[in-house]
Amino acid sequence: MKKIINDPNSAVQDMLDGFVAAYPNDVKRLPGTTVIARKDAPVTNKVGIVSGGGSGHEPAHAGYVGEGMLDAAVAGEVFTSPTPDQVFEGIKAVDNGAGVLLVIKNYTGDIMNFEMAAELAEAEGINVKQVVVNDDVAVEDSSFTTGRRGIAGTVFVHKIAGAKAAQGASLEEVQAVAEKTIQNVSSIGMALTPCIVPAAGTPSFELKENEMEIGIGIHGEPGIERKEITTADEIAVELTEKVIADLGLKSGEEVAVMVNGLGGTPEMELFIVNKKVNQLLSDKGITIYDTFVGEYMTSLEMAGCSVTLLRLDQELKTLLDAESKAPAFRR
Amino acid sequence: MKKIINDPNSAVQDMLDGFVAAYPNDVKRLPGTTVIARKDAPVTNKVGIVSGGGSGHEPAHAGYVGEGMLDAAVAGEVFTSPTPDQVFEGIKAVDNGAGVLLVIKNYTGDIMNFEMAAELAEAEGINVKQVVVNDDVAVEDSSFTTGRRGIAGTVFVHKIAGAKAAQGASLEEVQAVAEKTIQNVSSIGMALTPCIVPAAGTPSFELKENEMEIGIGIHGEPGIERKEITTADEIAVELTEKVIADLGLKSGEEVAVMVNGLGGTPEMELFIVNKKVNQLLSDKGITIYDTFVGEYMTSLEMAGCSVTLLRLDQELKTLLDAESKAPAFRR
Amino acid sequence: MKLDVAHILDWMEKANDKIQQNKTYLTSLDQAIGDGDHGINMARGFQEVIGKISASDYSNVSDLLKDISMTLLSKVGGASGPLYGTAFLKMSMALKDSDSVDYPQFVHAMEEALQGIKQRGKAEKGEKTLVDVWETLLEQLKEQDDFDSVRFEETAKLAMESTKELEAKKGRAAYLRERSIGHLDPGSVSSYYIFSSLSDVVKESV
Amino acid sequence: MKLDVAHILDWMEKANDKIQQNKTYLTSLDQAIGDGDHGINMARGFQEVIGKISASDYSNVSDLLKDISMTLLSKVGGASGPLYGTAFLKMSMALKDSDSVDYPQFVHAMEEALQGIKQRGKAEKGEKTLVDVWETLLEQLKEQDDFDSVRFEETAKLAMESTKELEAKKGRAAYLRERSIGHLDPGSVSSYYIFSSLSDVVKESV
Ligand SMILES: Nc1ncnc2c1ncn2[C@@H]1O[C@H](COP(=O)(O)OP(=O)(O)O)[C@@H](O)[C@H]1O
Ligand SMILES: Nc1ncnc2c1ncn2[C@@H]1O[C@H](COP(=O)(O)OP(=O)(O)O)[C@@H](O)[C@H]1O
Ligand SMILES: [Mg+2]
Ligand SMILES: [Mg+2]
Ligand SMILES: [Mg+2]
Ligand SMILES: [Mg+2]
Prior knowledge:
By secondary structure, chain A is of the alpha/beta class. Chain A has helices spanning 11-22, 84-94, 108-123, 153-166, 171-183, 232-247, 267-283, 314-321; strands at residues 27-29, 35-38, 48-55, 72-78, 100-105, 128-133, 185-191, 211-214, 225-228, 254-261, 287-294, 304-312.
């Protein structure tokens, strides 16, 4: 394992300190916690938005804290959901009476920890609602009770809920638009290499020199299907077709595109994928309203990418375009 | 070699298409060239700024094309300077009579190709000036006639020259502020892994599991010194001390910090490095005016980072803060 | 026999030892069908439990179990944190004010703990989660009227091993569907360590 | 003998064959002390040269050399593109309107080419660049009054091999300082291929 760290056990703490050191005028770390919050939190008369999850997905989630997006991000250990007490601190720090929306990615651990935090907050009289992002179409089995995972589409949920909250909408309204975003966003990822959790020191799976993994999650877990590596165009088509089918996108509809790098993939390759995604959508008469290419939801140093499409209507377009001062999503 | 590409020979072309597909309202590709220019180029009454170099450094250079930064970026093959005819096309496309500044990184190939392009442009009556960025302090031997390399500090030169040009300054003024930036910016990098040029298919050097390379360039070339891998803190101190010494920074001075990922390093690690860089500067009484952590000047999928410091005065601060709409450097 | 504060303290020491020794093994099980953090999570959490409970005095079992629960909840994270946290919290509540625990009380506490786990995780037996160990154990406990450390350990072990052939329906391993078959469930293995430690405590105190 | 258009065409064919065959080797030399693209650059450029010149008719050597130059300039890139492009451009200029080239003209063209390279690259002999091959060859050419294909090839080869022991002072390899010693200079090797091809042309036409 080759990593630029001091100690696997302090990696998350060091990262959080380094993050606040980078943006000291914009964010603060709640003392003694793993919560990064807007410097000016709680913001008066605004619904607070809290998200988070395991670390190792940088710039998620702290990079999305800022005016127009999240009020706080709660970091767990690498790939490990943060604990209820930490999430509870995040909720308390951003609530100013207007209530708090939790944006949770659909993993058993995240759900349980965030739900327990919500129970703690409600016990203190804070109005908490939650949405669960489940954009990953890799697992489509209907017998599948755990449900889909939440991956890169979560960033769009942050953006849109954040913009709605910034407009002064009520907790119910913010929750509704977040739900609407979730209904209209789908993603799927693929990887060429595994990644190494610092405290584990070894890769979570092995891939041969000619293999890739389709339907990969963002926690170094194996994907849904392993096959021979193919061209960027074929990969782009496979991923995009799955997402289009899932959303039932039709000619004339409008989407936002995200081609997300998983951490170790050169940006060059993401743009090569984007070329084909763009072509495919254009060929199908689907209008691309905006495109995001880069690292938004990573999996440490994993090489690979995911494709996310978000179906847009006028409301979502306006909210997507709204100003954001989050370091990792400036608009 | 595992890469998400179609063909090593079309990788740069595909990337450029994918880049324009991502930002169709902001940039255009000059037909039949590898030049990405502002959609509205040439901009009336504004000095044009052209940069570029080999590909594989994404988001450099095309990501810095946009209002407030570059007018055009010329892409070569991977790690190979673009040819004079391409640079010449870039110059012609952005000149509107106010002249053009070339921002060149100090590599023999870049210098020669850009100089030949400048000769061609001057022969057509275009007023061309150039600056050569040489921020890499890795090689400090004074007997060293080739001079230092240009690395991540180039991004600050783009930003500041671009902001000056956007204010309507003359070519001489823009050149002067670019020179001033170059005088005040230093960098040094390190790597944990090599990278693979797609058309070569094999890594340019090998590093053992316990080795790192200090003073690495951004073209997959070996560094200045190979040694045993150490902690993030020690790496941060070694790099930052070299840069501080080179700039002769003293207590009370103000700097911008860039902790730049080389392509394959998780953002988590960059923030861990930033923590220590920040601490060290604070301990020395050097004020951090602004910090940039992320991938700005990469070397394909190389794992590693560089540290850049830019000494600031009032003029540079104002120009650094000025608006930029470049996709990879939004302010 | 009755379980008192000293027994529970001993239980936690033994469980922590087993977990620390098998940290890498648990993590490698989780790498195979999960995200490779279970050993790390459990080792971190139980180390903190030992730190916490060895720095305090307890006059009754319930308070001790509550501290165990709270420490697990705030230090383990992931899926296993809330589940083990809930389990020990429910035990603590079931044994409110007891300074020691007789067999029927223990069975009752286990029953409450299992209900808590199932409510929190919405899992049923047979879905390749630690519920498989807890529920199988509870069934066995109910068949008896006193501690049987040997059968207890054997039952936990068999239940843990039985997860190997199951297809995961809950937790991260579920995303692998049939590819999850042939691997032990990491949470069931850590539960086995916890219960085999308890078996040792019982064995030694008889 | 005199070099005419057919000779130059043949020269380029042979040079291209050598470069394509040794593309990986040239790249590996550049990986050792540079950025690993020299073989790729040269192979791309010379392939384009062949494409260009085989699609046109040339009535004189100068026009042919100009097309070679322009193609190298616009297709090779990196440091070697402008250097080889300049070299052939200077040859073309030195041989303006010649439809064939006698020995003194050839030596003059080589002299102009070397000056062009040195001006463009600001390198001197001994700095571990292709100047080492070009300048050594020119010195040898000046000692004679007609083509000697064998000595020509031998001289180029020795000059190329001599770069191994040098420390690079120009180009990317210079950043390695003393670590550049012990490796051949890639540009000198490609120059050797170009000149050994010319030697073959001369040999075959005598
Ligand atoms: N819904 C659930 N109900 C019961 N147990 C579960 C559930 N989901 C996961 N588990 C247990 O948690 C274990 C994984 O724990 P851990 O790796 O620490 O958390 P995570 O899965 O969040 O990384 C699994 O092996 C399984 O036994
Ligand atoms: N300043 C220079 N003068 C003469 N030749 C040079 C100079 N710099 C580099 N070269 C030659 O160019 C070769 C490298 O070419 P190439 O790898 O294609 O370009 P780059 O170095 O830009 O990647 C070197 O081996 C050397 O012979
Ligand atoms: Mg986990
Ligand atoms: Mg090169
Ligand atoms: Mg796990
Ligand atoms: Mg080279």
